[in-house]
Design goal:
The complex is a heterodimer of chains A (53) and B (238). With 53 residues, chain A is mainly α. In chain A, 60% of the residues lie in helices and 0% in strands. In chain B, helix 2 (53-61) crosses helix 3 (65-87), helix 3 packs across helix 5 (117-139) and helix 4 (90-107) packs across helix 5 (117-139). The termini of chain B are far apart. Classes of the chains: A mainly alpha (53), B mainly alpha (238). Chains A and B meet through helix 1 and helix 2 of A and helix 3, helix 4, helix 5 and helix 10 of B.
C-alpha cells in the first residue's frame, strides 16, 4: 500500500480526521468483536517479537 | 568515613574552613538528592493516549496489547465514518472497516515511516473502499440463496423427538439470524472453505477478494456460529 502523503490532499486527510468529531454510528458489539479479532491477528503476526524481548 | 561532620568537634583554627567544607558537602548531598528526584520526575511515562502514532505502531509491532488498543481506538471511528459516508449501509461499512484494519495490522511490520501513519492508514481505507465499490459496480447482483432452506428439518429426517426437533429448529434459526448479519460473499466463502474444501487462494480468485479479506470473513462467520451455539446452550436448547 502506498505510503506517500503527497498522493492525498490535505482536505482528504482533514476529512478523515473529522471522523473523530462525528457521533459514532458503529455498533459497539461490532467494534469490540473486531478489536478481539484484530488483537488475535497482531499476536499471530508479531507475538514472537514480544516473546523475544 | 568516620564520625559525622556535625558531631566531630572542630578545632578553632580550622573552624572557618571546616564549616565551609561541611556546608559544601551538605549542599552537594542535597543537590544530588534534588537531581535524582528531578530525573525521576522527568522519566515518568506519559499516558499512552498522548503518544504520537508512529511510536504506537512500533510498539504494536513489538506485540504490545496496550499500544494496540490505543491505536485501534484512535482510528476505529475515523475509518468507520470515512467508509460509512461512502457506502451508506452498516453491513458494508463493517466489512470494509474489518478489511482495512486487517491490512493495517498485517502490513504494520513493513511500514517504513516514509509517510505518517495517518496518511498510510488513510490510503489503505481509501483503496479498500474503492475496491469494494468497483466490485459492486462490476458484479451488480446479490447472490440468491440456492435451493430449499437447508436448515429446515423434519423429525423423520433428523430422527429426533418433538422436543429435540423444536430445540434444533431454534438453533437453526439462531445460526440463520447470525449469518444474515454477514454479507453473502462472506457466507459463501465459509461454505467454500469448510464444505467445498477450497484453499484461501482459490476462494480469493473466485470471489475477487484479498486473502486478508477471506481470512477475516472466515474468522467472523466462525465466531458468529460459535456464539449461536453458546446462546442456545445457555438457553437450554442444546
Amino acid at each position: 500500500m502506498g505510503e506517500t502523503a503527497s498522493e492525498f490532499t490535505m482536505d482528504e486527510l482533514h476529512e478523515f480526521l473529522n471522523g473523530d468529531l462525528l457521533p459514532s454510528s458503529a455498533s459497539p458489539h461490532f467494534k469490540e468483536q473486531l478489536r478481539d479479532e484484530m488483537w488475535d491477528l497482531v499476536q499471530e503476526c508479531y507475538g514472537d517479537a514480544k516473546d523475544e524481548d | 568515613m568516620g564520625a559525622s561532620l556535625r558531631s566531630t568537634p572542630i578545632p578553632d583554627r580550622h573552624r572557618g574552613r571546616a564549616c565551609c567544607d561541611g556546608e559544601r558537602a551538605l549542599a552537594a548531598g542535597e543537590a544530588t538528592g534534588r537531581a535524582k528526584r528531578k530525573r525521576a520526575k522527568i522519566a515518568a511515562p506519559l499516558p499512552l493516549d498522548t503518544w504520537a502514532d508512529e511510536p504506537l505502531v512500533q510498539e504494536v509491532r513489538s506485540g504490545s496489547e496496550a499500544h494496540f488498543n490505543v491505536l485501534y481506538d484512535r482510528y476505529f471511528q475515523r475509518i468507520y465514518s470515512f467508509v460509512y459516508l461512502r457506502v451508506r449501509n452498516h453491513a458494508d461499512a463493517e466489512e470494509i472497516t474489518q478489511e482495512t484494519f486487517s491490512v493495517v495490522f498485517r502490513s504494520a511490520g513493513g511500514y517504513s515511516g516514509r509517510s505518517t501513519p495517518l496518511a498510510w492508514i488513510y490510503g489503505i481505507a481509501k483503496n479498500t473502499v474503492f475496491n469494494h465499490l468497483r466490485r459492486n459496480r462490476l458484479h451488480g447482483l446479490r447472490v440468491e440463496q440456492a435451493g430449499p432452506d437447508p436448515l429446515v428439518s423434519d423429525s423423520a429426517t433428523w430422527g429426533c423427538n418433538p422436543e429435540e426437533h423444536l430445540a434444533m429448529g431454534r438453533y437453526a434459526r439462531a445460526i440463520e439470524d447470525r449469518l444474515n448479519s454477514v454479507s453473502d460473499w462472506q457466507a459463501e466463502a465459509f461454505v467454500m472453505r469448510h464444505v467445498d474444501n477450497l484453499t484461501i487462494q482459490e476462494i480469493s480468485e473466485r470471489t475477487d477478494r484479498s486473502g486478508d479479506a477471506i481470512r477475516s470473513a472466515l474468522y467472523r462467520v466462525k465466531r458468529l456460529l460459535l456464539e449461536a451455539g453458546d446462546f442456545e446452550r445457555a438457553s437450554g436448547a442444546l
